[in-house]
Specification:
Helices cover 63% and strands 0% of the residues. By secondary structure, the protein is an all-alpha fold. The protein has a domain of 120 residues.
Length: 274
């Protein structure tokens, strides 16, 4: 029996074996596998579409936030107000020292300086000087809690200066370096328009009490000053003094002034020269 190598000569190509014809069962099995594969592909594609739609919908949805519960506005407590005031003061202090330069801060009051100036006003004696101190205080410390007292002192000092000028009283009337603490206290009050304090000073100079020596000149000046401030008794005493030295016109004027001020003399009086 001859072999395959003997049938073909060198250089000839090998013949390809023919594929066997498919059977009916094989064709049916192929169609079934093809349908199953198509169904799986469709299922996979459908799942992807659904998943993609779900992601799109999820991206369009916004999270829902509940608004915070409304709270009622309660008035701040005293401690909260104090803390807020302290914080404001600290901020004003920083603002006043910006760039290393101390600058005035609105609403900030120098309490120590204000107290020192007030003490100076309380001890001043000359009316003109007292008025100037009050003017400076009002300029440097506007809206001060001492504003009412400053205005009263200033008004009294202006009245005292007007009386000093109209009566022709000496300028050193208010600055005698004499008297005890009570005398000095009355002196300070008189410069501010206290008519009764002025009368007490006149009596001290008349009687030589309160650490002063008797002086008729000072007695006459202080009686006149007290009378012009509105002390009826001082006006009456001054009228008697003028009557004793023969100043009839001046005596009559101040006696009338005493009556106009409401003074009622005792029923028996010494004989007058008018």
């Amino acid at each position: 029996m001859a072999t395959d190598s003997a049938r073909f000569a060198p250089g000839d190509s090998m013949p390809v074996a023919a594929s066997p014809a498919p059977t009916v069962a094989a064709l049916a099995m192929g169609r079934s596998r093809s349908r199953n594969l198509s169904w799986l592909i469709a299922l996979a594609l459908g799942s992807g579409v659904v998943f993609a739609q779900a992601r799109a919908v999820a991206g369009q949805l916004q999270p829902i936030h509940k608004p915070p519960p409304k709270t009622q506005n309660k008035p701040p407590t005293e401690s909260q107000l104090q803390l807020a005031a302290q914080a404001k003061l600290k901020g004003d202090h920083k603002a006043g020292h910006a760039d290393g330069v101390q600058q005035p801060v609105a609403g900030k009051v120098d309490a120590a300086g204000m107290e020192a100036r007030w003490q100076e006003i309380q001890t001043a004696l000359r009316p003109r000087h007292l008025i100037a101190l009050c003017d400076e205080f009002q300029r440097d410390f506007p809206s001060s809690p001492l504003e009412p007292q400053i205005k009263d002192v200033q008004a009294g000092a202006r009245r005292a200066m007007d009386i000093q000028r109209s009566a022709g009283l000496s300028g050193d009337l208010f600055e005698d370096p004499i008297g005890d603490s009570g005398y000095r206290d009355n002196l300070i009050r008189a410069v501010r328009g206290d008519k009764d304090a002025a009368y007490r000073i006149a009596l001290a100079n008349w009687t030589g009490t309160s650490g002063v020596v008797p002086s008729m000149r000072r007695t006459e000046q202080w009686l006149r000053f007290a009378a012009e401030l509105g002390n009826g008794l001082a006006s009456w005493e001054l009228a008697q003094m003028y009557n004793r030295v023969g100043l009839v016109a001046d005596a009559a004027r101040f006696e009338k002034k005493a009556l106009d001020l409401g003074y009622r003399p005792p029923p028996r009086l010494p004989t007058r020269g008018y």
